[in-house]
Specification:
two-stranded parallel ribbon, 2 domains, 3-stranded parallel beta sheet, binds tryptophanyl-5'AMP, Rossmann fold, Tyrosyl-Transfer RNA Synthetase, 332 residues, mainly alpha
Amino acid sequence: MEERKTLYSAIQPTNNLTIGNYVGAIKNWLNLQENYDCYFSIANMHAITVRQDPAELRKKTLALLALYVACGIDPEKCCLYVQSHVSAHAELCWVLNTFTYVGEMERMTQFKDKSARHAENVNMGLMDYPVLMAADILLYQAQYVPVGEDQRQHLEIARDIAQRFNNAFSPTFTVPEGLFMKVGAKINDLQDPSKKMSKSVENPNGSVFLSDDRDTIIRKFKRAVTDSQSTIRFDPENKPGVSNLLTIYSVFADKSVEEAEAEFDGRGYGEFKAAVGEAVADKLAPLQAEQARILADRQYLDSILKSGAERAARTAGKTLFKVYKKIGFYQI
Ligand code: TYM
């Protein structure tokens, strides 16, 4: 039998996850878990590059695991674990730092954005974020990395670092490829559809959180910005608001964008926005209930994390051993 290819992805347990995280990441993982050897981590080491409340961070770590499982990520099929439970991430990150240039990191779009938003705390970790992400991926020799559009640049740098290391020594790392959804790799803000929907927004009406209740979801969609025309057509350039809503509808109602366009042909924006809100609320309600049910079972969650960490550490340890050998770290 042909060996299954490896796939790696992660989400930070920060703030409240949005439907962007669900559509751009988790939803994509669901189909992939059947055919790949999957590692899905909870990136708490990335999370602390922005100040976190310790008690909240602990809580959100478990909540994110419960969400993975509630969404249908199967812990029997996939390795689910917490990044800080596998020390190889920090160790490989240190080595890869010596193969990464300061100038490259300063040019990263997300670093520039976050530095502007957290001007009081532009710490080394924030700048090093992409190198830690490269370490995550490369430790598992992942061929594929399913992420949203906003991670494209980080993935490019991970590829560059892998190639640089392979060229300096001998082939050591698999050079990973990003997997982006055709529909939904970038869900935009409902109030400003030129920006991506973000967990850390100044205007909470622009983001729909996975924890929002039905009324809040419907209210946010009713207030979504559209345009001054009246046609419901997919045209991201000229109709960014409507196109974003069509994308969201298509994902949550399990229809193609063309089917969604046909369904709303000739109908008004008010009716359309309400229907998108209903579709999202209908999908999220059972997920929220399932997440709450799983979250109540601490023992089950801990057992997933324990076996996940063991499995992840085995795979990561093999790669780290090779790396240490190649760079000349004396081994005992
Ligand atoms: P995070 O937590 O910021 O985002 C998690 C995932 O959600 C996607 N995403 C979106 N997709 C579509 N539309 C949006 N509006 C939207 N907002 C977020 C992100 O692209 C991502 O896939 N740095 C990573 C976490 C990470 C990681 C890794 C990912 C750490 N190590 C290794 C892959 C491989 C991040 O962006 O997390």
